[in-house]
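Entry 14. Structure prediction run on the chain below.
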Amino acid sequence: MSIIHTPLEMQALSQNWQKGLSIGFVPTMGFLHEGHLSLVQESNRMCDVTVVSIFVNPSQFGANEDLSSYPRNLERDLQLLSKHKVDYVFIPKAEDIYPPTYRTWVNVTGISEVLCGASRPGHFTGVATVVLKLVNIVKPGLMFMGEKDYQQVTVLKAMLKDLNVPTTIIPCPIMREADGLAMSSRNTYLKGEARQQALCLYKAILMAKQLYREGIRDTNMLCEAASEIIKTNKGEIDYIEFVDPETLAHVGYAEADTRMILAVKVGVTRLIDNSLIQ
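Output returned:
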């Protein structure tokens, strides 16, 4: 496994691979868990070369968010990636991604401004910008992303399509702990009682899915039932929504492909989760 630090070196390698090797890319912010590693395994299965990036992207954090405290453990990350037979790890410096003269930002309108975009203004501009830069540097044919960040995947799919970027996103299933909590680097913030309370997101999803199976299609009713579970477990609801899987527009009547998506604050930690309602 080789570690690359500069965009120029990474670009030189990727240009050479394009002569005959398929490139799989897994962008991460580090502090890796089994969800990330499942993406690596899928890339290894489908591609000749797997590149993982580790970059805590400052432009996707708001002024009062957790950029400085975001969990980091590079030594452990590299051990895990080596064990999972990653070919290259790209670890750029912030000043190489955003030099002092930097002035270009990518804004995917509409779908970036709802759900998490409404409560985290500018977040998806930071995400779209850094991912486009990373894709231009690594030049992958396939990019592997987890469906836990469903809105992020949807925004990035739209960006790649709109800008005619020849990279295809492969969405991979959410990985969960044994008790159902969606795996996330931020789960390390959950201490004591908060860890148990965090299960309310998955419990709310299971309740909505059960009601759907019982014939309830009114998303207001599904939302009320899910909200009750969150509140009972002392969660602070940012949003619970039922949306079209492609446009992320609110739907009032749940269909088999309707996506339930929610964001909840448990203690000091903001958590997200989602699922098909069927």
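The first helix runs from residue 7 to 17.
Filed with the rest of this week's runs.
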